[in-house]
Structures are given as C-alpha cells and as structure tokens.
Amino acid sequence: MEDYQIMYDVVIIGGGPCGLATGLALQEKRISYVIIEKEAIVNSIVNCPLDMRFYSTSDRLEIGNIPFLSQEVRPTRTELLKYYRLVTERQAINIKCHQKVEHVSKDEDSYTVYTVDRMGTNSSYQTRMIVIATGIFDHPKRIGVEGENLDKVMHYYKEGHSFHGQDVTVVGGKNSAVEAAIDLYRNGARVTLVHRGDTVYKGIKPSLLLDIRNFVEKEKIKFYPDSSVEEINETNVCIQTPDGPVTIPNDYVFSLIGYQPDTTMLQNMGITIDSQTLVPTFNPDTYETNVTNVFLAGVVTGGITNRVYIEDGRFHGLKIAAEVEQRRNRQALKSS
Fold it and tell me: Mean pLDDT by 10-residue block, N- to C-terminus, for the chain (336 residues)?
C-alpha cells in the first residue's frame, strides 16, 4: 500500500462543484487539503445529456469568485465542464481523480482515508478533518420491478441519435425525463412517457413546457399519467394505468425518476441519517456533523428533499473553511 506521510488539515471526499469550491475556500486560507474523486472532476455534470443547457445562470454556478462567462445567460454542459476544468487547472486545486474511497478509519485525533484506483493501487491519506461532498447523482432511484436490471434499462440520458426508430419508454415526470422524451422524439424514436403523477406540465423548465404539451396533445409522445411500470422484459413493458394494465412494445427504457445519496459511508462513520428524508445530521452554521471534525458540503446535505443545488452548496465551503481556520488557530495558541 502506498502511504502518504503528509498530514492534511482536510480531506474532501467528492470532486464535484461543491467539493471544488470547498477546496478553493480552504486554499485561500492556506489550509492544507486534498480532494479525492472516484471518477472525473464534476462527474455529475459529465453524466448530463450532451446538449443540455442548464436552467441556472452562469453567475450562479461560479466557484471561488472566478467569473464564468457563457455564450448565453444559461450555460451548456460543454461550457460548464470547460469552466470547472480551467478553474481546477489555473487555481492548482489539489485533487486526486479516479480514486475510490474504500473506507475511513478513526485514530485518536485524526482520520485515515483509504482509496483504490482503477488499476487496483491502494493509497491512504491522513487528515485531521474530513469534508464529505459526494453529491447524490451517482445513485439513481430504483423502480423496484422485475426486469429493471436488464441491460436495456438506463438511468442516465446522453443523446437520442442511437435510438432512432426504436420503441423507448421514459419513466419520470421531472425535467430530466421530459427533456429526454422530447430529445428522443426529435431523434426519431417512438416515445412513451410514464409518470405516476397526473401531469408533467408543472414544475418543469419553461423552455420544455411548450414542446412537451404540444407533443403529448398531438400524441407524438404517448403519455400515461397516474401510471407505473409493473414489469420490464426484453421486448415489452407492462404499465399499470387508471384504465387497467397495458403492455407496449419496448426496445429501451430510461428510468429517470431521480437520485438519492449513498448513505453507507456516512453511516459507517457514525453520522446519523433521517430515515425518511436521508438528510444527515449537521450544524447549519458550520456544516459539521454529529461526528467531530467531519463536515458535509453540497447537495448531500439535502438528502432526497431536492432542496440543495450547486447554487447553494458552492457556499458551504466558506463556512467550513472559516470553522477549520478557527480550530487551527486555537490549536496553535495551545501549542505556543
């Protein structure tokens, strides 16, 4: 095992926008840190549709007071990836990508974070404090039906070209599902949209509303409201509708019903979690959890409530950095 002898002040687990913002806040105060990311930087954005344009304006996605100028007010996925990549490079953010955290051990006054990379190489990082900024988008919610594990069932949508001429069922009623259904139709797929709610016209981006209403009302996209998928097999999808069960031909399924945090690591570290909302216990003034010297940053603080986004989570690191600085100064006084 490769053993990093340096003792960091903070190890940040998760290299999304909020993890990067926390690193920048610590860096500004000359607090030593390293970010551990299991895949690429801002991997949740990597998994967004290729042609996606974000609803948030570019200024609300900035981190570290570094301006983000996009061609239009609302940036594209490509523009946002480029921005975070350039910030990482130019600010020399200390991040280790493609290293998965295997477990965390607690010593008397420090922690050791153990990781493994894609080649199977093990590493460890010693730290006084930990910030968990793992987000939620790596863990899609499950429908919980037979056939959900088939290869044709996907939980992320990239682009529609590959599905031209195919029977595609989209499950969900929020922005991601509606946007996928529209794009699939425009790329020549035969699209069915299934939603347990009575409408998909509420709470979605205004830019999607006109199209989805037009396509549904003209039956270019077949919509089953107040319905749920009951079974998926290689050739069909069985849907329970208000008028009874319906079986439709199917080649692919996009289950886009949302995401939730993986609370395993948090619980293993002793962080208490609300069983209904999956919101972890933390101090809103410092973002410290019920476990001493373990903090949270970003959307993981919201559990499954969908109340925390990049726009809010990017500021969590400022409070964490201020608290870490105070503790470091107090420790320095004790040692002097």
Answer: 71 97 98 97 93 92 95 96 98 97 93 96 96 91 96 96 98 96 98 97 92 97 98 98 98 95 93 96 98 97 89 96 93 76
Domains of the chain: 2-138+259-335 (3.50.50.60), 153-255 (3.50.50.60)
Among 144, 191, 199, 198, which residue's Cα sits nearest to residue 169?
A: 191
What residues have CB less than 8 Å from 113, skipping those under 6 apart?
Answer: 11, 13, 36, 101, 104, 124, 125, 126, 127, 130
Q: Please state the φ and ψ torsions of residue 335, each to the nearest 5 degrees.
A: -80, -20
Separation CA 261–CA 290 (nearest Å): 18
| CA count, 13 A, side-chain hemisphere, 162 | 8
Task: Give the closest residue to 46 by CA, choosing from 158, 175, 178.
Answer: 158
In terms of phi and psi (left: phi > 0; alpha: psi -120 to 50; beta: otherwise), the region of 243 is: alpha
- Cβ contacts of residue 107 below 8 Å, gap of 6+? none
Residues 133, 300 contacting (CB under 8 angstroms): yes
Angstrom distance (rounded) from CA 42 to CA 54? 14
CA 185 – CA 2 distance, rounded (Å): 50
Query: Collapsing DSSP states into helix, strand and coil, what is residue 171?
Result: strand
Q: Model confidence over 267-317: pLDDT tens digits?
A: 999 999 999 999 999 999 999 999 999 999 999 999 998 888 899 999 999
pTM of the model as a whole: 0.91
Pick from 223, 171, 169, 182: which is nearest to 49 by CA?
182
Q: Is 282 helix (H, G, I), strand (E, B) or coil?
A: strand
Structure tokens at 105: 């051990």
